[in-house]
Amino acid sequence: MLERRRFEALARFARDLHARGWVANHDGNASLRDDDGRFIVTPTAISKRLIEADDCLVIDRGGTVLRGRHRLFSEWSLHRALYDARPDAKAVLHAHPPYASGLALAGGELGAVASAEVVVSLGDFIPTVPFAMPGSEELEPAVAAVAERHDVMLLERHGVLCLGDDLEMAYLRLELVEHYARQVLVARQLGGERPLAPAQVEKLLAARTRAGLGPQARGLPRG
């Protein structure tokens, strides 16, 4: 039986997305993978500021609602693509934090990471998935391919996707992407980021792997 604390945790993180200004209206969604192949997810058409534990749904991989009184959000296929690509992932958050999403709206990228701390936490490159219409068949394989080598990604004109071993890790990654995007925007007003040297990046990535962070720590190659 699924523990109630997991429903409460998902609802709490959903409300925090709204409190931080990372979602508005009915934007964003969050999910948790259970060990038996089921998923706990936030519902559609409800503001994240209002979500309580009893509002969350239990679904199977195909999106059939097994428990809950609300409807499943339309972007479940993106979460499923990430979970399929990353068997180690237990949580996915999708939100529209304004600095990172603003870059994605403008066609900008975070790209090669210039901050030592961010390399250790998120890797040496933050990719942007090219724009595809919501619900289009191109988007799922695109995010899955990126997720094989990255924990976070920008979606062009759409927002941010983050994976984690749990909700806290996915949330911290989302928080750091947004914080780093804000730093990058300031740096670009002052002439642009100053890149780390390749040897420095390799040392930081080695520290990341030793800490058990990212797909490389699970034996997947670095892209």
Briefly characterize the structure.
With 223 residues, the protein is α+β, with helices and mostly antiparallel strands. The chain is built from 7 helices and 10 strands. It has an 8-stranded mixed β-sheet with strand order 4-3-2-1-5-10-9-8, with helices on both faces.
Name of the CATH architecture: 3-Layer(aba) Sandwich
Give the low-pLDDT segments: none
Could you please say which CATH topology applies here? L-fuculose-1-phosphate Aldolase
Number of domains: 1
From the spread of the alpha carbons, the general shape counts as: globular
Instruction: Record the strand order, biggest sheet.
Output: 4-3-2-1-5-10-9-8
Using DSSP, what is the number of strands? Answer: 10
Rg over C-alpha atoms, rounded to the nearest angstrom: 17 Å
In the CATH hierarchy, what is the class?
Answer: Alpha Beta
Query: Could you state the CATH homologous superfamily?
Result: Class II aldolase/adducin N-terminal domain
Cα separation of the termini: 38 Å
Tell me the quaternary state: single chain
**Major beta-sheet overview:** 8 strands, mixed
**SSE pattern:** HEEEEHEHEHEEHEEHH
Q: Could you describe the 3D structure shown?
A:
With 223 residues, this protein is an alpha+beta fold. It has one domain (4-218): 3-Layer(aba) Sandwich (L-fuculose-1-phosphate Aldolase), CATH 3.40.225. Helix content is 39%, strand content 16%. It has helices at 4-19, 76-85, 98-105, 116-122, 139-147, 167-189, 198-210, and strands at 29-33, 39-41, 57-59, 65-67, 91-95, 111-112, 125-126, 128-129, 152-155, 159-164. It has an eight-stranded mixed sheet, sandwiched between helices. A two-stranded antiparallel ribbon has the order 6-7. A hairpin with a 5-residue loop joins strand 1 and strand 2 (39-41). Helix 2 (76-85) runs parallel beside helix 5, helix 3 (98-105) crosses helix 6 and helix 4 (116-122) crosses helix 7. The N and C termini lie far apart (38 Å). The model has no long low-confidence stretch (mean pLDDT 94).
